[in-house]
Amino acid sequence: MATIEHWIGGQFTAGASTRRSPVFNPATGQRQHEVVLATTADVDAAVQAAATAFESWSQASLSARTKVLFNFRELVNARVKDIAEIISDEHGKVLSDAAGEVQRGLEVIEFACGIPQLLKGSYSDQVSTGVDVFSFREPLGVCAGITPFNFPAMVPMWMHPVAIACGNTFVLKPSERDPSASNYVAGLWREAGLPDGVFNVVHGDKEAVDALLDHAGVAAISFVGSTPIARYIHQKASAAGKRVQALGGAKNHAIVLPDADLDFTAGHLTAAAFGSAGERCMAISTAVAVGAAGDPLMEQVSRMASEVIVGPGRDPRSEMGPVVTSAAKQRIESLIGSGEQQGAKVLVDGRGLTIPGHEEGFFVGPTVIDQVQPSMDVYTEEIFGPVLSVVRASDVDEAIALINSNPYGNGTAIFTSSGEAARRFQRGVRVGMIGINVPIPVPMAYYSFGGWKDSLFGEQHIHGPEGVSFYTRAKVITSRWPHVTTPADASLHFPTA
Ligand code: NAD
User: The pTM is what?
Assistant: First the structure.
């Protein structure tokens, strides 16, 4: 059983801790590795390494930084398959989906390759006689990223390529459930020519996270994970005077109107609910079927859900893999049970699924629960598994009101052929990312990603222009080079011209 160590200052180290956490292969249910859990001293070592590296990296020219980014892009692109295999073995998702995640991360690296353009300041000539004003942005220092299990490569890549391109150094604390992808990516940064100490990985749990939040040497925290932890991170990091963006959980609704194309909608809903076993923050976990859309939709989605091929992520025939841990499987199955007890109708039941040859794997089959009421646990809880809850509504306004009364506001979608209804939806719904006949409206890397309400704490969304803004701060310079032959014109009045 391999031990997964920290990557600090360009070296692997086990650090000072004796604490370890098991890393499972969700398809077999077997422990395959253990990961070291950092102490406060280990985190301090990583922050110190990053602080030392900041002195020279923050002074590296734009050309030098861009060259490293382009090299990194080439290396990640060449190793998509390797990274996907690492992800699949620890997360459980199927290989094609894992490769898709790396591809989306790659797009953020490509965005960050354009950093000279993104960091261009502004210049105003002759704002007053002989006076010019210009602005530029500088890096913050040591930035930290704390990331969830569900996208072990992509979510960290929402952060570190942008932070590093801006001239910061970075300490990543990935999920302890699937930590290996981060160490692999650290090796690619080094191969790309990134100086040691600019990118560091510390593994750990709450102790490591708290050490980062408390550390005076950390300037900014980017967090992605569940809402209770996002709220905690935002409060604690803000109180410590750090810049913080904390993206939380989700409960994404898709409204289906009677005028939507049934085959198109059912296919896309099935994919959006069960892809990656529903362990996506942009998964559609709730369908809101309006009026006559409900019954035919339920018939078709139930058939398609039953046909999803569930199996180990490494098997190319599998369309959906296991969930991440045995605890996740138990929690999901118990929530399905509570829905049934509270009066919802389980049309397709994924509980108790076993896959021949993988009897100990953490598999839950696609599940469709109809007639869900907003008071039920299956509606109020973020299930984070392959479960589609279906609420019935009588019209589009009732459906929009339901979405707006939900505490989360990450993503949402509408299926319709009515431009008028779609426009009413896009203007009326209080959610950060909106799809129109697009069930998972993840913005491209050159836009910014983020939800509203309890899905994001902090002001700035992640990657894209807001990512560059988050990882830099502006200086505005007012400059005058007086002609020495003219007499001094200083006065006590406010200058006006
Ligand atoms: P999580 O909140 O349990 O863990 C996220 C990170 O926080 C991990 O690195 C973990 O080690 C750390 N952590 C856990 N408990 C902590 C504690 N008590 N104190 C300090 N740190 C702690 O989330 P998860 O289960 O790994 O990921 C799934 C969640 O992430 C879901 O809620 C999902 O919606 C959310 N998510 C959101 C987005 C988004 O963009 N909004 C994207 C991906 C995942």
Answer: 0.97
